[in-house]
Design brief:
Blueprint lengths: L2 H20 L2 H8 L3 H8 L7 H8 L3 H14 L2 E4 L6 E4 L5 H14 L1
Antiparallel strand pairs: 1-2
Length: 111
């Protein structure tokens, strides 16, 4: 493993740790929503995928995803890294499937 790869991984870990300390998972889930496609798109914001790749993998329209990503960046749960076609998105940390399911159960119980 190259030094630049290790540094990149360490910075990514640092963002995740600070993100977990600053923003609880319930808040991140509230902003992202509990829809399968939205959660998948958010989790694909791992710094490796372009917006086009995220849209394709999550099966979302590019225009809808663009507005959603702007909302996530504004809320501080995702960051835009790079410029132009090299822009990548990085979430504060991924949403686990269990958190999404427990959120759904809580909503159903309140009805």
């Amino acid at each position: 493993m190259q030094t630049s790869d290790k540094l990149e991984q360490l910075v990514e870990c640092l963002i995740h740790v600070i993100g977990r300390a600053a923003i609880p998972q319930s808040e991140v889930t509230k902003v992202v929503g509990t829809g399968v496609k939205q959660v998948k798109a958010f989790n694909l914001c791992n710094g490796k995928n372009s917006q086009t790749e995220i849209a394709g993998k999550a099966r979302l329209y590019q225009s809808n995803l663009s507005r959603t990503l702007a909302r996530w960046v504004e809320a501080g749960i995702a960051f835009s890294i790079g410029e132009g076609k090299d822009t990548r998105l990085l979430h504060v940390y991924p949403i686990h499937r269990d958190a999404r399911k427990s959120k759904r159960r809580k909503v159903k119980r309140k009805r």
